[in-house]
Each structure stands twice: as structure tokens, then as C-alpha cells.
Predict the structure.
Amino acid sequence: MAAEAYVGATFRDPVLSVDLEEAERSLGESLPQELKNLLSETDGITGRTSSDAVWSLERIVRDNLRFRRERSFVELYMPFDPFLFFGDNGGGDQFASCCARRDRTSSFGSTRATVASGSPTICRTTFPAD
């Protein structure tokens, strides 16, 4: 179905359940079921412009741990603990699921993230890529 909706997208081999479990242990939280379902079909989706619309599981873990641990992100933008980033649009906007169960709107510098009650919530957050 995604292949029909995203002409020119590239799909990778599925993620094994043992790898999903290890990722959840590394992150200290469960991944949203919808994301686990997708990763069980393909380990990320690369768009026709070579951007990773949905990141690989390895990148999801690596980047989320980095966003949460690097003090410079917290000081420059905001704490990213309530978010689970899983992709981007290739232009600097990154896609995230909200793991928090509280209402919160935060503005820090050029970053604005709106978090609504209930999970998952897709948030638009902009900050520098690697």
C-alpha cells in the first residue's frame, strides 16, 4: 500500500522482533504499535529524493538517544524526552510521536512543538540535522 502511495520510494528488509525488543530496551520505552507494525514490514522508507521519510530502527534508536542526552539540544531547543523521532522530510523537519500524556505547548528559539493529550501525536519540530 505504501508503495502505491509513494511512487519511487525504497523499502528495506523487515526488522526482526528481537531487534524491536532490543531497541525498546535501549530507549527505555515501548515503540508505538503503528511504528512497530511498519518496521516489521520495512526497516525504514527512503523517498524518491533519497531522504529517509521513515528512519531505520538503528537510526531511530541512535538519534533519539542523542537528542535526549546532548545537553546542547535541551539548552538550545527544549527537552526531547516526550518525543520519539522516527523520520524526516529531507528539509530539516523531523517527524515524531509524542510519548507524553499531558497537554503542553513549548516554544524555544526557532523550535515550536505542540504536544496534545493522547499518544501517538505527530509533531512538527525543526532543528539542525547532522
In short: The radius of gyration is 15 Å. The first helix runs from residue 2 to 5.
